[in-house]
Protein backbone atom coordinates (compact mmCIF):
# COMPACT_ATOMS: atom_id res chain seq x y z
CA UNK A 1 0.00 0.00 0.00
CA UNK A 2 2.74 2.46 1.02
CA UNK A 3 4.79 1.39 -1.98
CA UNK A 4 1.88 2.19 -4.32
CA UNK A 5 1.44 5.60 -2.65
CA UNK A 6 5.13 6.36 -3.07
CA UNK A 7 5.05 5.22 -6.70
CA UNK A 8 1.96 7.37 -7.38
CA UNK A 9 3.63 10.36 -5.78
CA UNK A 10 6.69 9.96 -8.01
CA UNK A 11 4.56 9.65 -11.16
CA UNK A 12 2.44 12.65 -10.21
CA UNK A 13 5.56 14.70 -9.59
CA UNK A 14 7.10 13.63 -12.89
CA UNK A 15 3.96 14.32 -14.96
CA UNK A 16 3.08 17.41 -12.88
CA UNK A 17 -0.41 16.09 -12.09
CA UNK A 18 -2.31 18.06 -9.47
CA UNK A 19 -4.49 16.17 -7.02
CA UNK A 20 -8.09 17.37 -6.80
CA UNK A 21 -9.22 17.70 -3.13
CA UNK A 22 -12.54 15.97 -3.87
CA UNK A 23 -10.69 13.05 -5.48
CA UNK A 24 -8.40 12.81 -2.46
CA UNK A 25 -11.45 12.65 -0.20
CA UNK A 26 -12.94 9.76 -2.20
CA UNK A 27 -9.54 8.07 -2.22
CA UNK A 28 -9.30 8.19 1.57
CA UNK A 29 -12.85 6.92 1.98
CA UNK A 30 -12.15 4.07 -0.43
CA UNK A 31 -8.93 3.23 1.44
CA UNK A 32 -10.66 3.16 4.86
CA UNK A 33 -13.59 1.15 3.50
CA UNK A 34 -11.29 -1.44 1.93
CA UNK A 35 -9.22 -1.84 5.10
CA UNK A 36 -12.34 -2.10 7.30
CA UNK A 37 -13.95 -4.66 4.98
CA UNK A 38 -10.80 -6.80 4.84
CA UNK A 39 -10.33 -6.75 8.62
CA UNK A 40 -13.98 -7.57 9.25
CA UNK A 41 -13.94 -10.40 6.71
CA UNK A 42 -10.73 -11.77 8.20
CA UNK A 43 -12.13 -11.70 11.74
CA UNK A 44 -15.31 -13.51 10.68
CA UNK A 45 -13.46 -16.20 8.73
CA UNK A 46 -10.79 -16.78 11.39
CA UNK A 47 -13.25 -16.80 14.29
CA UNK A 48 -15.62 -19.23 12.56
CA UNK A 49 -12.80 -21.51 11.49
CA UNK A 50 -11.20 -21.55 14.96
CA UNK A 51 -14.53 -22.04 16.70
CA UNK A 52 -15.45 -24.97 14.48
CA UNK A 53 -12.00 -26.56 14.84
CA UNK A 54 -11.90 -26.21 18.64
CA UNK A 55 -15.50 -27.41 19.04
CA UNK A 56 -14.79 -30.46 16.88
CA UNK A 57 -11.64 -31.31 18.86
CA UNK A 58 -13.40 -30.96 22.22
CA UNK A 59 -16.50 -32.92 21.19
CA UNK A 60 -14.47 -35.75 19.67
CA UNK A 61 -12.15 -36.19 22.66
CA UNK A 62 -15.07 -35.90 25.09
CA UNK A 63 -17.08 -38.51 23.18
CA UNK A 64 -14.04 -40.79 23.05
CA UNK A 65 -13.45 -40.40 26.78
CA UNK A 66 -17.08 -41.13 27.65
CA UNK A 67 -17.01 -44.31 25.58
CA UNK A 68 -13.73 -45.56 27.07
CA UNK A 69 -13.86 -48.81 29.08
CA UNK A 70 -13.47 -48.75 32.84
CA UNK A 71 -9.95 -50.19 32.66
CA UNK A 72 -8.78 -46.92 31.09
CA UNK A 73 -9.86 -44.97 34.18
CA UNK A 74 -8.26 -47.59 36.43
CA UNK A 75 -4.79 -46.91 35.01
CA UNK A 76 -5.07 -43.24 33.96
CA UNK A 77 -4.48 -40.57 36.62
CA UNK A 78 -7.29 -38.05 36.92
CA UNK A 79 -4.73 -35.25 36.54
CA UNK A 80 -3.87 -36.43 33.04
CA UNK A 81 -7.53 -36.25 32.00
CA UNK A 82 -7.90 -32.83 33.65
CA UNK A 83 -4.79 -31.66 31.82
CA UNK A 84 -6.28 -32.63 28.46
CA UNK A 85 -9.53 -30.78 29.13
CA UNK A 86 -7.97 -27.73 30.77
CA UNK A 87 -4.46 -26.82 29.63
CA UNK A 88 -4.43 -28.64 26.29
CA UNK A 89 -7.93 -27.56 25.25
CA UNK A 90 -7.19 -23.97 26.34
CA UNK A 91 -4.03 -23.84 24.24
CA UNK A 92 -5.81 -25.33 21.23
CA UNK A 93 -8.75 -22.93 21.67
CA UNK A 94 -6.97 -19.69 22.55
CA UNK A 95 -3.20 -19.61 22.26
CA UNK A 96 -2.72 -21.60 19.05
CA UNK A 97 -5.13 -19.43 16.97
CA UNK A 98 -3.60 -16.26 18.43
CA UNK A 99 0.02 -17.21 17.76
CA UNK A 100 -0.82 -18.59 14.30
CA UNK A 101 -2.73 -15.44 13.36
CA UNK A 102 0.15 -13.22 14.52
CA UNK A 103 2.69 -15.38 12.69
CA UNK A 104 0.89 -15.15 9.34
CA UNK A 105 0.05 -11.46 9.78
CA UNK A 106 3.58 -10.40 10.72
CA UNK A 107 5.09 -12.92 8.31
CA UNK A 108 3.11 -11.41 5.45
CA UNK A 109 4.29 -7.93 6.39
CA UNK A 110 7.91 -9.08 6.60
CA UNK A 111 7.74 -10.79 3.19
CA UNK A 112 6.17 -7.75 1.54
CA UNK A 113 8.78 -5.51 3.18
CA UNK A 114 11.59 -7.65 1.78
CA UNK A 115 9.93 -7.63 -1.67
CA UNK A 116 9.72 -3.83 -1.50
CA UNK A 117 13.40 -3.55 -0.57
CA UNK A 118 14.27 -5.88 -3.47
CA UNK A 119 12.26 -3.66 -5.83
CA UNK A 120 14.31 -0.72 -4.63
CA UNK A 121 17.61 -2.65 -4.62
CA UNK A 122 17.47 -5.72 -6.91
CA UNK A 123 20.93 -6.84 -5.73
CA UNK A 124 19.48 -7.16 -2.22
CA UNK A 125 17.93 -10.48 -3.36
CA UNK A 126 21.42 -11.98 -3.54
CA UNK A 127 22.18 -10.91 0.05
CA UNK A 128 18.87 -12.37 1.24
CA UNK A 129 19.77 -15.90 0.13
CA UNK A 130 22.33 -16.64 2.92
CA UNK A 131 20.29 -14.63 5.45
CA UNK A 132 17.17 -16.66 4.62
CA UNK A 133 19.17 -19.89 4.92
CA UNK A 134 20.36 -18.83 8.39
CA UNK A 135 16.78 -18.03 9.44
CA UNK A 136 15.60 -21.49 8.33
CA UNK A 137 18.46 -23.18 10.22
CA UNK A 138 17.67 -21.13 13.34
CA UNK A 139 13.99 -22.04 13.13
CA UNK A 140 14.67 -25.77 12.71
CA UNK A 141 17.33 -25.87 15.42
CA UNK A 142 15.41 -23.87 18.05
CA UNK A 143 12.12 -25.66 17.32
CA UNK A 144 13.35 -28.91 18.85
CA UNK A 145 14.36 -27.32 22.13
CA UNK A 146 11.22 -25.20 22.40
CA UNK A 147 8.89 -28.10 21.60
CA UNK A 148 10.78 -30.32 24.05
CA UNK A 149 10.41 -27.70 26.78
CA UNK A 150 6.71 -27.33 26.08
CA UNK A 151 6.25 -31.09 26.10
CA UNK A 152 7.97 -31.28 29.50
CA UNK A 153 5.69 -28.51 30.75
CA UNK A 154 2.59 -30.44 29.69
CA UNK A 155 3.86 -33.77 31.05
CA UNK A 156 4.78 -32.36 34.48
CA UNK A 157 1.39 -30.69 34.82
CA UNK A 158 -0.50 -34.02 34.86
CA UNK A 159 0.88 -35.32 38.21
CA UNK A 160 0.43 -31.83 39.66
CA UNK A 161 -3.25 -31.79 38.67
CA UNK A 162 -3.68 -35.36 39.96
CA UNK A 163 -2.22 -34.39 43.32
CA UNK A 164 -4.51 -31.37 43.60
CA UNK A 165 -7.59 -33.42 42.66
CA UNK A 166 -6.83 -36.25 45.09
CA UNK A 167 -6.02 -33.77 47.86
CA UNK A 168 -9.38 -32.06 47.45
CA UNK A 169 -11.19 -35.40 47.41
CA UNK A 170 -9.45 -36.68 50.55
CA UNK A 171 -9.15 -33.40 52.43
CA UNK A 172 -11.08 -34.62 55.48
CA UNK A 173 -8.95 -37.78 55.76
CA UNK A 174 -5.72 -35.77 55.35
CA UNK A 175 -6.73 -33.43 58.16
CA UNK A 176 -7.89 -36.31 60.38
CA UNK A 177 -4.49 -38.04 60.14
CA UNK A 178 -2.50 -34.76 60.38
CA UNK A 179 -0.89 -35.29 56.98
CA UNK A 180 -1.16 -31.68 55.79
CA UNK A 181 2.61 -31.11 55.85
CA UNK A 182 3.36 -34.22 53.77
CA UNK A 183 0.84 -33.24 51.13
CA UNK A 184 2.15 -29.67 51.06
CA UNK A 185 5.71 -30.92 50.53
CA UNK A 186 4.51 -33.22 47.76
CA UNK A 187 2.70 -30.29 46.11
CA UNK A 188 5.79 -28.06 46.33
CA UNK A 189 7.95 -30.78 44.82
CA UNK A 190 5.57 -31.27 41.87
CA UNK A 191 5.19 -27.50 41.44
CA UNK A 192 8.97 -27.03 41.37
CA UNK A 193 9.31 -29.78 38.78
CA UNK A 194 6.74 -28.08 36.56
CA UNK A 195 8.39 -24.68 37.11
CA UNK A 196 11.72 -26.08 35.93
CA UNK A 197 10.10 -27.36 32.73
CA UNK A 198 8.40 -24.00 32.17
CA UNK A 199 11.73 -22.21 32.77
CA UNK A 200 13.44 -24.42 30.17
CA UNK A 201 10.68 -23.58 27.68
CA UNK A 202 10.99 -19.82 28.26
CA UNK A 203 14.79 -19.89 28.08
CA UNK A 204 14.64 -21.75 24.77
CA UNK A 205 12.39 -18.97 23.45
CA UNK A 206 14.82 -16.28 24.67
CA UNK A 207 17.77 -18.12 23.10
CA UNK A 208 16.04 -18.12 19.72
CA UNK A 209 14.99 -14.46 20.10
CA UNK A 210 18.55 -13.19 20.68
CA UNK A 211 19.90 -14.96 17.60
CA UNK A 212 16.96 -13.77 15.57
CA UNK A 213 17.84 -10.18 16.48
CA UNK A 214 21.36 -10.71 15.15
CA UNK A 215 20.02 -12.02 11.83
CA UNK A 216 17.55 -9.14 11.60
CA UNK A 217 20.45 -6.69 11.92
CA UNK A 218 21.98 -8.26 8.81
CA UNK A 219 18.87 -7.28 6.81
CA UNK A 220 19.00 -3.72 8.15
CA UNK A 221 22.75 -3.43 7.54
CA UNK A 222 22.40 -4.75 3.97
CA UNK A 223 19.70 -2.18 3.21
CA UNK A 224 21.84 0.68 4.54
CA UNK A 225 24.78 -0.60 2.53
CA UNK A 226 22.86 -0.62 -0.76
CA UNK A 227 21.43 2.83 0.00
CA UNK A 228 24.94 4.16 0.34
CA UNK A 229 26.37 2.54 -2.80
CA UNK A 230 23.46 2.92 -5.26
CA UNK A 231 23.72 6.16 -7.26
CA UNK A 232 21.05 8.81 -6.60
CA UNK A 233 20.06 8.99 -10.27
CA UNK A 234 19.14 5.28 -10.16
CA UNK A 235 17.11 5.39 -6.93
CA UNK A 236 14.73 8.20 -5.92
CA UNK A 237 14.97 9.68 -2.46
CA UNK A 238 11.41 8.64 -1.54
CA UNK A 239 12.00 5.01 -2.51
CA UNK A 240 15.27 4.91 -0.57
CA UNK A 241 13.59 6.38 2.50
CA UNK A 242 10.73 3.89 2.23
CA UNK A 243 13.14 0.97 1.91
CA UNK A 244 15.12 2.13 4.93
CA UNK A 245 11.95 2.54 6.97
CA UNK A 246 10.89 -1.01 6.27
CA UNK A 247 14.40 -2.35 6.87
CA UNK A 248 14.45 -0.81 10.35
CA UNK A 249 10.96 -2.18 11.11
CA UNK A 250 11.96 -5.65 9.95
CA UNK A 251 14.33 -6.03 12.92
CA UNK A 252 11.57 -6.24 15.55
CA UNK A 253 9.05 -7.84 13.22
CA UNK A 254 11.32 -10.71 12.19
CA UNK A 255 11.98 -11.60 15.81
CA UNK A 256 8.24 -11.49 16.50
CA UNK A 257 7.54 -13.65 13.42
CA UNK A 258 10.03 -16.31 14.47
CA UNK A 259 8.81 -16.22 18.08
CA UNK A 260 5.16 -16.57 17.08
CA UNK A 261 6.02 -19.29 14.58
CA UNK A 262 7.89 -21.34 17.17
CA UNK A 263 5.15 -20.71 19.76
CA UNK A 264 2.57 -21.98 17.26
CA UNK A 265 4.67 -25.12 16.70
CA UNK A 266 4.94 -25.60 20.47
CA UNK A 267 1.18 -25.28 20.93
CA UNK A 268 0.63 -28.00 18.35
CA UNK A 269 2.03 -30.33 21.04
CA UNK A 270 -1.26 -29.87 22.90
CA UNK A 271 -3.25 -30.54 19.74
CA UNK A 272 -1.20 -33.69 19.15
CA UNK A 273 -1.91 -34.89 22.70
CA UNK A 274 -5.64 -34.35 22.15
CA UNK A 275 -5.56 -36.16 18.80
CA UNK A 276 -3.68 -39.05 20.45
CA UNK A 277 -6.61 -39.41 22.85
CA UNK A 278 -9.05 -39.37 19.93
CA UNK A 279 -7.13 -41.94 17.87
CA UNK A 280 -5.59 -44.20 20.52
CA UNK A 281 -8.25 -44.58 23.23
CA UNK A 282 -10.10 -47.86 23.10
CA UNK A 283 -13.89 -47.64 22.96
CA UNK A 284 -16.56 -49.78 24.55
CA UNK A 285 -19.00 -51.79 22.47
CA UNK A 286 -21.64 -49.72 20.64
CA UNK A 287 -24.69 -48.61 22.59
CA UNK A 288 -27.17 -49.99 20.09
CA UNK A 289 -26.70 -52.74 17.48
CA UNK A 290 -29.69 -52.34 15.19
CA UNK A 291 -29.79 -55.89 13.86
CA UNK A 292 -29.35 -57.39 17.35
CA UNK A 293 -31.80 -55.41 19.45
CA UNK A 294 -33.64 -57.42 22.14
CA UNK A 295 -37.44 -57.79 21.92
CA UNK A 296 -39.66 -55.06 23.33
CA UNK A 297 -40.32 -55.72 27.02
CA UNK A 298 -37.12 -57.73 27.51
CA UNK A 299 -36.43 -59.05 30.08
CA UNK A 300 -39.89 -60.24 31.01
CA UNK A 301 -38.91 -62.65 33.81
CA UNK A 302 -35.36 -61.77 34.84
CA UNK A 303 -33.66 -65.15 34.74
CA UNK A 304 -29.85 -65.00 34.69
CA UNK A 305 -27.40 -67.72 33.70
CA UNK A 306 -23.62 -67.47 34.21
CA UNK A 307 -21.88 -70.20 32.20
CA UNK A 308 -18.15 -70.79 32.72
CA UNK A 309 -17.51 -67.05 33.07
CA UNK A 310 -13.90 -65.85 33.22
CA UNK A 311 -13.07 -62.19 33.81
CA UNK A 312 -9.85 -60.22 34.22
CA UNK A 313 -9.42 -56.47 34.76
CA UNK A 314 -6.92 -55.99 31.96
CA UNK A 315 -4.92 -58.04 29.49
CA UNK A 316 -2.02 -59.72 31.24
CA UNK A 317 -3.55 -59.61 34.73
CA UNK A 318 -4.79 -62.74 36.53
CA UNK A 319 -8.43 -63.80 36.37
CA UNK A 320 -10.70 -62.32 39.06
CA UNK A 321 -13.60 -64.62 38.14
CA UNK A 322 -12.67 -68.20 37.31
CA UNK A 323 -15.05 -70.52 35.53
CA UNK A 324 -18.14 -69.13 37.32
CA UNK A 325 -21.33 -71.04 36.61
CA UNK A 326 -24.73 -70.66 38.30
CA UNK A 327 -28.35 -69.94 37.42
CA UNK A 328 -30.76 -67.43 38.94
CA UNK A 329 -34.45 -68.16 38.48
CA UNK A 330 -37.04 -65.46 37.74
CA UNK A 331 -37.85 -63.19 40.74
CA UNK A 332 -35.27 -64.94 42.91
CA UNK A 333 -33.45 -62.98 45.63
CA UNK A 334 -29.79 -63.99 45.69
CA UNK A 335 -27.34 -62.93 48.38
CA UNK A 336 -23.70 -62.78 47.29
CA UNK A 337 -21.07 -63.01 50.03
CA UNK A 338 -17.36 -63.58 50.32
CA UNK A 339 -14.22 -62.15 51.79
CA UNK A 340 -12.51 -59.06 50.38
CA UNK A 341 -11.17 -59.80 46.90
CA UNK A 342 -13.39 -62.84 46.37
CA UNK A 343 -14.94 -61.36 43.19
CA UNK A 344 -18.32 -60.09 44.44
CA UNK A 345 -18.17 -56.65 42.79
CA UNK A 346 -16.51 -58.12 39.71
CA UNK A 347 -19.60 -60.27 39.26
CA UNK A 348 -21.79 -57.15 39.09
CA UNK A 349 -19.34 -55.41 36.74
CA UNK A 350 -19.46 -58.39 34.41
CA UNK A 351 -23.27 -58.34 34.42
CA UNK A 352 -23.28 -54.70 33.32
CA UNK A 353 -20.45 -55.39 30.84
CA UNK A 354 -18.28 -52.76 32.51
CA UNK A 355 -15.75 -55.57 32.38
CA UNK A 356 -15.94 -57.72 29.27
CA UNK A 357 -15.72 -61.49 29.61
CA UNK A 358 -12.48 -63.32 28.97
CA UNK A 359 -14.46 -66.50 28.40
CA UNK A 360 -17.90 -68.04 28.92
CA UNK A 361 -21.27 -66.30 28.60
CA UNK A 362 -24.00 -64.50 30.56
CA UNK A 363 -27.59 -64.80 29.38
CA UNK A 364 -30.68 -62.92 30.57
CA UNK A 365 -34.00 -64.50 29.59
CA UNK A 366 -32.16 -66.59 27.01
CA UNK A 367 -30.31 -63.69 25.32
CA UNK A 368 -26.51 -63.58 25.44
CA UNK A 369 -25.76 -60.06 26.70
CA UNK A 370 -22.50 -59.90 24.71
CA UNK A 371 -24.50 -59.87 21.46
CA UNK A 372 -26.57 -56.74 22.20
CA UNK A 373 -25.67 -53.06 22.56
CA UNK A 374 -24.60 -51.65 25.89
CA UNK A 375 -27.45 -49.15 25.99
CA UNK A 376 -30.02 -51.88 25.40
CA UNK A 377 -28.46 -53.91 28.23
CA UNK A 378 -27.77 -51.28 30.88
CA UNK A 379 -31.09 -49.50 30.42
CA UNK A 380 -32.82 -52.71 31.56
CA UNK A 381 -30.73 -53.15 34.70
CA UNK A 382 -30.61 -51.09 37.90
CA UNK A 383 -27.90 -50.87 40.53
CA UNK A 384 -27.71 -49.26 43.95
CA UNK A 385 -24.01 -48.99 44.88
CA UNK A 386 -22.42 -48.75 48.29
CA UNK A 387 -21.78 -45.05 47.72
CA UNK A 388 -25.08 -43.71 46.32
CA UNK A 389 -24.56 -41.21 43.50
CA UNK A 390 -26.62 -38.02 43.22
CA UNK A 391 -25.83 -35.39 40.60
CA UNK A 392 -25.88 -31.62 40.85
CA UNK A 393 -29.37 -30.49 39.88
CA UNK A 394 -32.79 -31.05 41.42
CA UNK A 395 -34.57 -33.96 43.06
CA UNK A 396 -36.66 -34.30 39.91
CA UNK A 397 -33.59 -34.45 37.67
CA UNK A 398 -31.98 -37.14 39.83
CA UNK A 399 -35.13 -39.26 39.81
CA UNK A 400 -36.10 -38.71 36.19
CA UNK A 401 -33.25 -37.17 34.13
CA UNK A 402 -35.03 -37.78 30.80
CA UNK A 403 -38.46 -36.43 31.88
CA UNK A 404 -40.22 -39.74 31.21
CA UNK A 405 -42.57 -39.82 34.24
CA UNK A 406 -45.31 -37.68 35.73
CA UNK A 407 -45.05 -35.97 39.11
CA UNK A 408 -47.60 -38.46 40.40
CA UNK A 409 -45.23 -41.32 39.58
CA UNK A 410 -42.28 -39.56 41.23
CA UNK A 411 -44.21 -38.98 44.48
CA UNK A 412 -45.43 -42.58 44.43
CA UNK A 413 -41.87 -43.90 44.14
CA UNK A 414 -40.69 -41.59 46.93
CA UNK A 415 -43.55 -42.75 49.17
CA UNK A 416 -42.83 -46.42 48.60
CA UNK A 417 -39.17 -45.81 49.45
CA UNK A 418 -40.05 -43.98 52.69
CA UNK A 419 -38.42 -40.69 51.65
CA UNK A 420 -41.49 -38.69 50.57
CA UNK A 421 -41.74 -36.83 53.88
CA UNK A 422 -38.11 -35.70 53.63
CA UNK A 423 -38.63 -34.27 50.12
CA UNK A 424 -41.93 -32.64 51.15
CA UNK A 425 -40.15 -30.58 53.81
CA UNK A 426 -37.70 -29.10 51.27
CA UNK A 427 -38.25 -25.70 49.70
CA UNK A 428 -39.22 -26.47 46.13
CA UNK A 429 -39.92 -30.15 46.89
CA UNK A 430 -39.24 -31.99 43.60
CA UNK A 431 -37.44 -28.91 42.31
CA UNK A 432 -35.31 -28.59 45.45
CA UNK A 433 -31.61 -28.26 44.58
CA UNK A 434 -29.12 -31.08 45.17
CA UNK A 435 -25.50 -30.07 45.69
CA UNK A 436 -22.47 -31.98 44.44
CA UNK A 437 -22.52 -35.65 45.50
CA UNK A 438 -25.83 -35.01 47.29
CA UNK A 439 -24.06 -33.68 50.38
CA UNK A 440 -27.27 -31.95 51.56
CA UNK A 441 -28.74 -35.42 52.21
CA UNK A 442 -27.57 -38.13 54.60
CA UNK A 443 -26.12 -41.38 53.23
CA UNK A 444 -29.34 -43.22 54.10
CA UNK A 445 -31.51 -40.62 52.37
CA UNK A 446 -29.34 -40.80 49.29
CA UNK A 447 -29.74 -44.59 49.26
CA UNK A 448 -33.51 -44.27 49.46
CA UNK A 449 -33.57 -41.69 46.63
CA UNK A 450 -31.47 -44.08 44.51
CA UNK A 451 -33.98 -46.83 45.29
CA UNK A 452 -36.82 -44.57 44.19
CA UNK A 453 -34.94 -43.97 40.94
CA UNK A 454 -34.56 -47.73 40.42
CA UNK A 455 -38.23 -48.26 41.23
CA UNK A 456 -39.29 -45.71 38.60
CA UNK A 457 -37.40 -47.61 35.92
CA UNK A 458 -39.28 -50.80 36.84
CA UNK A 459 -36.23 -52.92 36.04
CA UNK A 460 -36.68 -56.65 36.26
CA UNK A 461 -33.12 -57.06 37.56
CA UNK A 462 -31.75 -55.08 40.50
CA UNK A 463 -28.19 -55.22 41.86
CA UNK A 464 -27.35 -53.94 45.35
CA UNK A 465 -23.60 -53.62 45.84
CA UNK A 466 -23.21 -53.52 49.65
CA UNK A 467 -25.83 -50.78 49.64
CA UNK A 468 -26.25 -50.77 53.43
CA UNK A 469 -22.62 -51.18 54.48
CA UNK A 470 -22.10 -47.49 55.27
CA UNK A 471 -25.43 -46.65 56.97
CA UNK A 472 -26.74 -47.10 60.50
CA UNK A 473 -28.84 -50.05 61.65
CA UNK A 474 -32.10 -48.07 61.74
CA UNK A 475 -31.73 -46.85 58.16
CA UNK A 476 -30.63 -50.35 57.18
CA UNK A 477 -33.91 -51.74 58.52
CA UNK A 478 -35.82 -49.10 56.52
CA UNK A 479 -33.93 -50.04 53.36
CA UNK A 480 -34.62 -53.74 53.90
CA UNK A 481 -38.31 -53.00 54.40
CA UNK A 482 -38.35 -51.00 51.16
CA UNK A 483 -36.70 -53.87 49.30
CA UNK A 484 -39.29 -56.35 50.52
CA UNK A 485 -42.22 -54.09 49.65
CA UNK A 486 -41.37 -52.61 46.26
CA UNK A 487 -38.91 -55.05 44.66
CA UNK A 488 -40.73 -58.29 45.33
CA UNK A 489 -41.49 -58.92 41.64
CA UNK A 490 -37.95 -58.53 40.31
CA UNK A 491 -34.77 -60.57 40.36
CA UNK A 492 -32.33 -59.23 42.91
CA UNK A 493 -28.62 -59.78 43.37
CA UNK A 494 -27.43 -58.38 46.71
CA UNK A 495 -23.74 -58.13 47.58
CA UNK A 496 -24.04 -58.18 51.35
CA UNK A 497 -21.81 -56.91 54.11
CA UNK A 498 -24.27 -57.47 56.95
CA UNK A 499 -25.09 -61.14 56.61
CA UNK A 500 -28.23 -60.97 58.73
CA UNK A 501 -29.90 -58.88 55.99
CA UNK A 502 -29.85 -61.76 53.49
CA UNK A 503 -30.81 -64.72 55.71
CA UNK A 504 -34.36 -64.50 54.35
CA UNK A 505 -33.23 -64.57 50.71
CA UNK A 506 -33.99 -67.48 48.40
CA UNK A 507 -30.37 -68.58 48.00
CA UNK A 508 -26.86 -67.55 49.00
CA UNK A 509 -23.89 -67.49 46.59
CA UNK A 510 -20.54 -67.76 48.37
CA UNK A 511 -17.42 -66.74 46.44
CA UNK A 512 -13.76 -67.27 47.29
CA UNK A 513 -10.84 -66.19 45.10
CA UNK A 514 -13.09 -65.75 42.09
CA UNK A 515 -14.79 -69.16 42.33
CA UNK A 516 -18.20 -70.39 43.52
CA UNK A 517 -17.70 -72.54 46.60
CA UNK A 518 -21.29 -72.64 47.90
CA UNK A 519 -24.70 -71.96 46.39
CA UNK A 520 -27.73 -73.04 48.42
CA UNK A 521 -30.58 -71.78 50.58
CA UNK A 522 -29.66 -69.88 53.78
CA UNK A 523 -31.22 -72.52 55.98
CA UNK A 524 -29.25 -75.34 54.35
CA UNK A 525 -25.98 -73.45 54.68
CA UNK A 526 -26.62 -72.40 58.29
CA UNK A 527 -27.48 -75.93 59.36
CA UNK A 528 -24.14 -77.16 58.00
CA UNK A 529 -21.64 -75.84 60.53
CA UNK A 530 -18.74 -76.64 58.22
CA UNK A 531 -20.08 -74.38 55.46
CA UNK A 532 -18.19 -71.14 54.79
CA UNK A 533 -21.39 -69.07 55.08
CA UNK A 534 -22.20 -70.55 58.48
CA UNK A 535 -18.69 -69.76 59.69
CA UNK A 536 -18.91 -66.19 58.38
CA UNK A 537 -22.21 -65.66 60.20
CA UNK A 538 -20.73 -67.06 63.42
CA UNK A 539 -17.71 -64.75 63.20
CA UNK A 540 -19.89 -61.71 62.56
CA UNK A 541 -22.19 -62.58 65.47
CA UNK A 542 -19.19 -62.96 67.81
CA UNK A 543 -17.86 -59.58 66.70
CA UNK A 544 -21.21 -57.94 67.43
CA UNK A 545 -21.33 -59.60 70.86
CA UNK A 546 -17.80 -58.40 71.64
CA UNK A 547 -18.71 -54.87 70.57
CA UNK A 548 -21.77 -54.88 72.86
CA UNK A 549 -19.73 -56.15 75.80
CA UNK A 550 -17.14 -53.40 75.38
TrEMBL record:
GO terms for cellular component: endomembrane system; membrane. Residues 40-266 form the ABC transmembrane type-1 domain. Its main location: membrane. Pfam families: ABC_membrane (PF00664), ABC_tran (PF00005). The chain crosses the membrane at residues 106-139, 208-228, 234-253. PROSITE patterns: ABC_TM1F, ABC_TRANSPORTER_1, ABC_TRANSPORTER_2. The keyword NADP does not apply. InterPro entries: AAA+_ATPase, ABC1_TM_dom, ABC1_TM_sf, ABC_transporter-like_ATP-bd, ABC_transporter-like_CS, ABC_transporter_C-like, P-loop_NTPase. One of its GO terms (molecular function) is ATP binding. CDD domains: ABCC_MRP_domain2. It is a multi-pass membrane protein. SMART domains: AAA. Keywords: ATP-binding, Membrane, Nucleotide-binding, Repeat, Transmembrane, Transmembrane helix, Transport. It is found in: Endomembrane system. This is ABCC5. It comes from Bugula neritina (Brown bryozoan).
